[in-house]
Amino acid sequence: MGRLRLFLPLCGFLLLVVxxxxxxxxxxxxxxxxxxxxxxxxxxxxxSLQDAEKTLTQEDLKGKILxxxxxxxxxxxxxxxxxELMRLKEQFGLEIAGVVYKDEPDNARRWxxxxxxxxxxxxxxxxxxxxxxxxxxxxxxxxLLNAEGKILYKRVGEVNARIWRDExxxxxxxxEYFDLDQQR
Amino acid sequence: xxxxxxxxxxxxxxxxxxxxxLTSFTGAYxxxxxxxxVGSSMVAGQFVFVLLxxxxxxxxxxxxxxxxxxxxxxxxxxxPMQFKVSAVWGAHEGSFLLWTLIMSAWTxxxxxxxxxxPGDVRARVxxxxxxxxxxxxxxxxxxxxxxxxxVPFAPDNGADLxxxxxxxxxxxxxxxxxTGYVGFSVAFAFAIAALLSGKLDASWARWSRxxxxxxxxxLTVGITLGSWWAxxxxxxxxxxxxxxxxxxxxxxxxxxxxLIHSLAVTEKRGTFKSWTVLLAIxxxxxxxxxxxxxxxxxxxxxxxxxxxxERGLFILGFFVLVVGSSLVLYAMRVPLIRSRVxxxxxxxxxxxxxxxxxxxxxxxxxxxxxxxPLAYEAATGGGKISVGVPYFNSLFIPVMAVLTFALGVGHTxxxxxxxxxxxxxxxxxxxxxxxxxxxxxxxLLDGVYRWEVALALVLAVWVAATHLKDLWFxxxxxxxxxxxxxxxxxxMLIAHLGFAVVLVGVCITSHYSLERDVRLGFGESLExxxxxxxxxxxxxxxxxxxxxxxxxxxxSGDGSSYWLYPEKRKYLSSNQVMxxxxxxxxxxxxxxxxxxxxxxDNTWTLRVHYKPFVRWTWLGGLxxxxxxxxxxxxxxxxxxxxxxxxxxxxTLGGATV
Lengths: 184, 657
Fold this sequence. Notes:
- The complex is a heterodimer of chains A (184) and B (657).
- Chain A has 184 residues and is of the alpha/beta class.
- Chain A has helices at 2-5, 8-26, 76-92, 105-115, 129-134, 161-174, 180-183; strands at residues 45-47, 55-57, 66-71, 96-101, 121-125, 141-145, 151-156.
- Chain A has a single domain (32-183), classed as Glutaredoxin.
- Chain A is 41% helix and 18% strand.
- Chain A is elongated.
- With 657 residues, chain B is α+β, with helices and mostly antiparallel strands.
- Chain B has helices at residues 2-30, 33-62, 69-74, 81-86, 92-113, 119-143, 168-197, 203-233, 244-269, 273-296, 309-333, 348-380, 389-410, 420-440, 451-474, 479-482, 487-512, 614-632, 635-643, and strands at residues 514-521, 525-528, 531-542, 546-557, 560-564, 567-571, 577-580, 582-584, 589-600, 603-612.
- Classes of the chains: A alpha/beta (184), B alpha+beta (657).
- Chains A and B meet through helix 2 and helix 3 of A and helix 3, helix 10, helix 11 and helix 12 of B.
């Protein structure tokens, strides 16, 4: 008994580890809080970057599976992410709608002209109102929408090759969005 | 080029530290003096390469090399030079590099200052510290490489350092805190080395005492500075929030405090051995846990900036490996210890045991409060709950009160056995005086009489009076006798008086602070704490990397008058707005004003604080740290080094390098 008692600290420690493990897997901040998951994309009425006359609304996001990417030219991570978005567009034909978040439209146009444009169109969210509705922590963030405009997945931070492989692509395959390897 | 070289230096350092572990452990196991010597010479190499890696990152920051992703995220060309350098540890990757550098520095210090130790003990200690370095360097290289480049699209300018962190407090707070955290690895390494060798005598306690004191002193200053920083920078005049990240630094501090006292008993009396070993393991584990909490974002907190699941998992894995294996080793080896318990009911040992128990209770309270939300979430599958300040205050404070009372008796008691009559004779009068003074003193303060304050003051006077009486007794009642007392005793005295000072500060500032949120037009004034504040208007000013609106207030009363200039700053590169409080600091009171928002033409909201004795909380913290350092200067540690070996270790045998 005396000797077994010496293992008590170890047992306590293992308990703590289990708790940390559980808490850790529950608390992954990259997972969308359940509040927005499976809900429709919030309503908005904002100008388009490409065509200043045109007004875009949440209805424009419907009808196809779409990645909505919140970005800005002042955000260095967005620059790192940009190359990956270009790759996803070219290699897989992924359709990406941009939200230009708290930024000057002219800056955004210059950026797209200089580095390439992975977006089908961009929504200008100059004062960040849409960002508030979306619960944006900071740029970049991305939302995967199904054809009904419902949010399936949210990524806080950059979309990179790992996120594409582990999070986005499996979800697209589930939707039978494409036979990636055969077609392209 | 330079960033790649820095990255390469870290890889070399990792390789060296692997060699350091292998040669040290093998050398100690085979009693091979040459291998052990190789192991200890690796330490210097490892330090140099980590230092070079760190220098490379500093270089990238100073030259604003925004092709390095970490620099681009945390710096900006407008940032003043001192903040470009401190931005190196402004976020996760760099601060972990700093952590690793400090680990190497401690290892080097141990290698240099422990030449007098038996070779195998020294080799095992360096081996254990090598294992920790390997873990930290791997973590850095695998999950948190600070040298990662953004190519080919390097941004023209960086995103800037968080304005909250553009401050003197941030330049010094993390390095000090990390030095404390990592410093506990030395006591940990000594304890593990003793368990590995199976020779758990009192000597390992003597060797690790100075190191533990030093680490504890650094942690004390680190926490104190953190509290001071939060007070003046966050703009709401609080100095402790029971925030998970604060608790993360406070838990190793409480365990470390217990460890210091328990080490004293183990060294002097040869008892509490296995308990001391367990405390050494616990203290360092709590430091690692602190790193895990802060770096994984597992507990929501304002401090948890960098959040990444891979990092959290790596640290958790490392944590399990290090602490788990230590506790297994503990359970296997402790039965070898033969402790003879030869103290009775009332003795200094009993009081030190009480100290340890109470500190552990206090630690458990903080621990439960910090992790309960997490456990609740794990148990309910995602339910959220928060533990508030009242929980911590209502449980923590009574424990501290009992501890403080015991502190006054404990150091007066003799080792082994103390008669009750002896204690009553020595302390009875002091108790009466403390009671009288403590009850009367609150009458001198402005405001309503509060029994909580009276109680705290009784205890503070009690600690101070018992210590000063004991000092006078030891000096033989003459001033010349004071010079004969050892540095170790003065260290204890100053640390304990510092604790009393903290107690006074915490208690009075908590009960007598005044706070007012007001709208003031230009020319209007407010009365608070017997002072008159007149708002004279605002003006625009310009800093290096921000523009600011600056309010002017004329404060008068107490027979003097002065100006305060609170600011509202807008940082140019990030557009973040920060309130910069204006503080008139004094030993007995702080006057603190922060600027709110304009609510109408020529009218602003302002927050005005009157905070008596708030400086004492930090002043006492510095005293405590000073005491810890002073104790290291004690002659007997130097004597040990000169004689090479001390009698207690002569039986250890083994190769001597």
